[in-house]
């Protein structure tokens, strides 16, 4: 990892903890605020530790983009959890064959960047 990339990663990590420190839930209830702050911190620790040994520059860039997207979406909608998405249904393709593989590929491509790592840890 280059020094610039390392600084960028550590800067995002610090930014997440600063956001968690100042976080207020949308409802304003103290219990929910505490629960959401804990979620933000645990999610950040889990994902950053999971990606600690990533060395491929393209994959590092993708992880940074996902992190920035999740921060912006969380701040914009005032929810720390990933926004749900509605992927296209599987349709009538059988569980094997070319049509099934094609639909799986389309579902994978249609997943937004901020949910790329969510399925890996959930």
From TrEMBL:
User: What's one GO-annotated cellular component?
Assistant: nucleoplasm
Identify the residues that the record assigns to the Complex 1 LYR protein domain, covering every copy. Answer: 7-71
- State the superkingdom: Eukaryota
Xref: Pfam families: Complex1_LYR
Q: Where, if anywhere, are coiled coils annotated?
A: none
Family under the similarity heading: Belongs to the complex I LYR family.
Q: What is the name of this protein?
A: LYR motif-containing protein 1
């Amino acid at each position: 990892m280059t020094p610039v990339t390392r600084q960028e990663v550590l800067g995002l990590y610090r930014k997440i903890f600063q956001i968690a420190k100042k976080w207020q839930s949308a409802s304003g209830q103290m219990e929910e605020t505490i629960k959401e702050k804990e979620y933000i911190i645990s999610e950040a620790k889990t994902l950053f530790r999971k990606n600690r040994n990533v060395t491929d520059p393209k994959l590092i860039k993708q992880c940074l983009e996902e992190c920035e997207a999740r921060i912006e979406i969380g701040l914009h909608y005032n929810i720390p959890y990933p926004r749900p998405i509605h992927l296209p249904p599987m349709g009538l393709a059988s569980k094997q064959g070319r049509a099934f593989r094609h639909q799986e590929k389309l579902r994978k491509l249609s997943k937004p960047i901020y949910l790329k790592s969510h399925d890996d840890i959930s």
